[in-house]
């Protein structure tokens, strides 16, 4: 204490001690376990109350209304307690959040989440295992591995299959294409005539073949992997938005005649807009003939692995060299939860790096299961626990029943739209999306574009329902993505009536 020379210093010292004590009361440990329970319960109760009292997916709040509230928070001045912070958060976030569980949320591939996964979420963030190394995760590693094996088993990828959980389909696609790229380069280098010693020269010749309806993360991956956006050859689709095998055959032949190397064929099992599933058998056969890797992007369609009535839509997926599955879409898991699976576990070596401080090569030799050896990430959440508890509590059939319900709902919505002369369906529903537009007789193409853009904005601004928009052959359409088996046909009808009313109002205004 002799170090303290003035009263000011003494006050500082006192308040520093107080601060340190208060802060250490917030650490999650045995002493503070009761506080943990009480505080998390406050939060859980708040969300439950909020959900019970919301009766629409959104308030329609605009960014300009919320941003001053968020900007006005002084982050250097904490509130007195958790209750106060939660109360503040209610106004900043919960009040105007977009709620995916609401039956009139029909916009993007966001699912209502299942309670077993929320139970898992509570555990995994508190224990905070990190899945990079065994010495940071232990049993969590084994649970993740079992789920990778379970998924690969349902895919039928064979005894040598493996994979790893990722943050989402974008990362799963990137990792699969990274492996495919290195696989292709390795093979090129075995051929002295190929002159592929210098990597940029090799990359220049590699091509990825994906349908024009494939997800943009394929093109993004190509750019990240050094192929450029031009490295992706878009393959034409048929009228149902599935990759046309004849067009793929032609694209592969044309590419070969230009001296290019087919690095990967990407088949999509569930395109984001149409839910269309590319012909998997034909894609596999053409990829095999071309000596190409076959990646199946089943980010959306992956849930069919649990379906009781529609599993056959994935027939042929077992021929893939790699597969992307998003559990946070059609397995009803909270964000984030995804996996990339490979047919041949040895191909995961393409992402393995050994760091002496983390996962030395000696650990791999001793067969210590370090998941970082297979992952693009280092520190990584134990997202697998959510799926584990989901399977242990409700079972795979339960997931499948929820997905089947959403698919049936889409098919009924398709009938509604088909029967209605004021709506145009872009193509019959294939999974759980519907692409359509409001276009009563006599509305020209330009007006139809403006009309449907307006409807999309007006519906979302009302907050009564959420629908998405997309373009088909350059024209503006609306889109339903249905993942909520509890949504009734009446509720879908109500959204259609709202669309009609907004649309009719727009047309009347345009005429006046
Ligand atoms: C959603 C989606 C992705 C991207 O997945 P994220 O989890 O959003 O990163 C990739 N491919 C398809 C077909 C998708 O629908």
From TrEMBL:
Family affiliation: Belongs to the group II decarboxylase family.
UniProt organism field: Arthrobacter crystallopoietes BAB-32
Protein name stated in the entry: Pyridoxal-dependent decarboxylase
Matching Gene3D superfamilies: 3.90.1150.170, Type I PLP-dependent aspartate aminotransferase-like (Major domain)
Keywords (A to Z) from UniProt: Decarboxylase, Lyase, Pyridoxal phosphate
GO molecular function annotations of the record: aromatic-L-amino-acid decarboxylase activity; pyridoxal phosphate binding
Pfam families: Pyridoxal_deC (PF00282)
Keyword Lyase: yes
DNA-binding in keyword set: no
Obligatory cofactor(s): pyridoxal 5'-phosphate
Positions of post-translational N6-(pyridoxal phosphate)lysine modification: 329
GO cellular component: cytoplasm
Coiled-coil stretches noted in the UniProt entry, renumbered to this chain: none
Classification via PANTHER family: CYSTEINE SULFINIC ACID DECARBOXYLASE (PTHR45677:SF8), GLUTAMATE DECARBOXYLASE-RELATED (PTHR45677)
GO biological process: amino acid metabolic process; carboxylic acid metabolic process
């Amino acid at each position: 204490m002799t170090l303290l020379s003035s009263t000011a210093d003494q006050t500082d010292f006192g308040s520093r001690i107080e601060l340190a004590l208060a802060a250490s009361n917030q650490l999650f440990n045995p002493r503070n376990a009761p506080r943990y329970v009480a505080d998390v319960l406050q939060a859980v109760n708040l969300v439950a109350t909020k959900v019970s009292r919301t009766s629409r997916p959104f308030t329609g709040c605009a960014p300009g209304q919320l941003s001053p509230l968020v900007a006005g928070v002084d982050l250097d001045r904490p509130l007195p307690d958790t209750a106060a912070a939660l109360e503040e958060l209610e106004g900043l976030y919960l009040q105007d959040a977009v709620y995916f569980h609401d039956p009139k949320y029909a916009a993007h591939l966001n699912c209502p989440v299942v309670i077993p996964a929320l139970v898992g979420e509570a555990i995994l963030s508190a224990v905070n295992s990190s899945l990079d190394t065994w010495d940071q995760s232990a049993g969590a590693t084994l649970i993740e591995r079992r789920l990778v094996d379970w998924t690969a088993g349902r895919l039928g990828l064979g005894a040598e299959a493996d994979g790893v959980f990722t943050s989402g389909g974008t990362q799963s696609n990137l990792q699969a294409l990274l492996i495919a790229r290195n696989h292709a380069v390795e093979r090129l280098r075995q051929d002295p005539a190929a002159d592929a010693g210098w990597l940029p020269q090799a990359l220049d010749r590699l091509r990825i073949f994906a349908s024009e309806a494939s997800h943009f993360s394929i093109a993004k991956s190509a750019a990240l992997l050094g192929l450029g956006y031009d490295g992706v050859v878009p393959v034409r689709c048929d009228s149902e938005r599935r990759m046309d095998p004849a067009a793929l055959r032609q694209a592969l032949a044309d590419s070969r005649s230009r001296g290019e190397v087919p690095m990967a064929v990407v088949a999509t099992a569930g395109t984001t807009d149409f839910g269309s599933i590319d012909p998997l058998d034909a894609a596999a056969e053409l990829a095999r003939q071309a000596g190409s890797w076959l990646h199946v992007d089943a980010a959306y369609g992956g849930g069919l692995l649990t379906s009781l009535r529609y599993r056959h839509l994935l027939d042929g997926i077992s021929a893939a060299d790699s597969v992307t599955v998003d559990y946070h879409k059609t397995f009803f898991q909270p964000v984030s939860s995804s996996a990339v699976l490979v047919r041949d576990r040895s191909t995961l070596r393409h992402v393995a790096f050994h760091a002496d401080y983390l996962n030395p090569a000696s650990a791999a030799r001793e067969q210590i299961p370090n998941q970082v050896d297979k992952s693009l990430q280092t520190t990584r959440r134990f997202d697998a626990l959510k799926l584990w508890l989901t399977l242990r509590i409700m079972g795979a059939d339960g997931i499948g029943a929820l997905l089947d319900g959403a698919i049936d709902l889409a098919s009924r919505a398709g009938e509604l739209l088909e029967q209605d002369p004021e709506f145009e369906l872009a193509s019959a529903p294939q999974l759980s999306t519907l692409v359509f537009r409001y276009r009563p007789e006599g509305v020209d193409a330009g007006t139809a574009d403006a009309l449907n853009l307006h409807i999309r904005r007006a519906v979302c601004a009302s907050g009564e329902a959420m629908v998405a928009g997309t373009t088909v052959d350059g024209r503006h359409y609306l889109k339903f993505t249905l993942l909520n088996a509890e949504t009734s046909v009446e509720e879908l009808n109500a959204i259609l009536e709202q669309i009609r009313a907004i649309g009719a109002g727009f047309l009347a205004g345009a005429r006046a």
